[in-house]
Amino acid sequence: MKQLADKTILITGGTGSFGKAMVNKLLETDVVEIRIFSRDELKQELMRIDYREPRLKFYIGDVRDRDSVDNVMKGVDYVFHAAALKQVPSCEFFPIQAVYTNILGGHNVIESAFAYKIKTIVCLSTDKAAYPINAMGMTKALLEKVAQAAARTPTRNDTVVCCVRYGNVMCSRGSVIPLFIDQIKKGLPLTVTVPEMTRFLLPLRDSVDLVLFAFTNANPGDLFVKKAAACTIIDLAQAIKNLFKSNVETKIIGVRHGEKLYETLVTKEELRRAEDMGDYYRISLDDRNLNYNLYFTEGDEKDTQIDGYHSHNTQRLGVEAVEELLLSLPYVQNELKGYLAL
Length: 342
What we know:
The protein has 342 residues and is α/β, with parallel strands linked by helices. It contains 13 helices and 15 strands. The mean pLDDT is 92.
């Protein structure tokens, strides 16, 4: 964190869950300025009122608009690029909007970072980019490719561009834990898709740690993944019911449009060349060039039977362990305090 002293940091999409968590972490350091860049003036105003912090500066703009990106980029040292369309259904119904924001918007941020000689830019991606089956995942996968292509350009290595990939953050807006808690409060059945469906359990604090780890350790074009435990959706629902002392019904509704049975964070193709760094995987840039011999005649002798890293084969938590993890989350603590006081 000493590396951040006296530096100016830009967070695109900075009014979201990740942005706020990163701001909290950065305010513990000696950063001179944190720029929040987004298009939602109401969220910026609420954040401004909530923090009342002179080091926070707010910029209205859109990653789709290169001029507004250039305007906020001037004088910045490091960039955390979190702006995106993240809701799977929205991207399914309006895929071209996901293209504009997630791919072209990411391209604008990366190109602007190179133009203004930013030291490091970390782009946030998602598990849905691994074997993508929906528009959101497809656009995020292409964002990763855009970042890697930029990193592959030799004349640009003064700016380190890298990516991180993680699954749904626990208690983030639109995720299942707030949904289950809201259903319990209203006395409604918990709507479980498929009982054996698994999901990684990543607290927001761990997503911040992942981004900072990438920021500290990245070479141009690296992709970082944090290892995490997982659980089945039915065990997650039961753990929440136990904590809230609820006996509401659990209703099985089936797989929703664009969903997978399990989350993949590292594909088997990527895992063959990944570096195990303890709590993290580093997938280095595939630095082959357009010499097609490297693709068609030389090949790769590494094990082709290796599996990927996904929520079906990672550490599996039972109901009690999930309860313990949930109790460590500020959101759940606050919701429990209000609910049990009634």
